[in-house]
Amino acid sequence: MESSSIFGAEKMEPNDFENNERALVALRDDDAAAFCTFTNRDEMPREYGCGP
After folding, report:
1. How many CB atoms lie within 10 A of CB 7?
2. What are the phi and psi torsion angles at 13 (to 5°)?
């Protein structure tokens, strides 16, 4: 299972978000310090039946 950080980063690099999805990035001195993604799906496998 991939981590949520990898999943979110893979969506941010090509800006691969749906219309209702977003990324929030915290900056410190113009450098990314942290990020949070609001997506329709996260790293949890679909068979668990849960997600964001």
Report:
1. 17
2. -55, -55
Do the Cβ atoms of 15 and 23 come closer than 8 Å? no
Q: Residue 28, SS3?
A: strand
Q: Which of 25, 20, 13, 14 is nearest to 39 (CA)?
A: 20
Q: How long a stretch of residues is the chain?
A: 52
Asked if residue 30 lies in contact with residue 16, where contact means CB atoms within 8 angstroms, the answer is no
What is the DSSP-derived secondary structure letter of residue 32? E
Residues 12-25: tens digit of each pLDDT: 777 878 899 888 88
Q: Report phi then psi at 26, rounded to 5.
A: -95, 130
Q: What is the pTM of this model?
A: 0.54
> What value does the CA radius of gyration of the chain take, rounded to a whole number of Å?
12
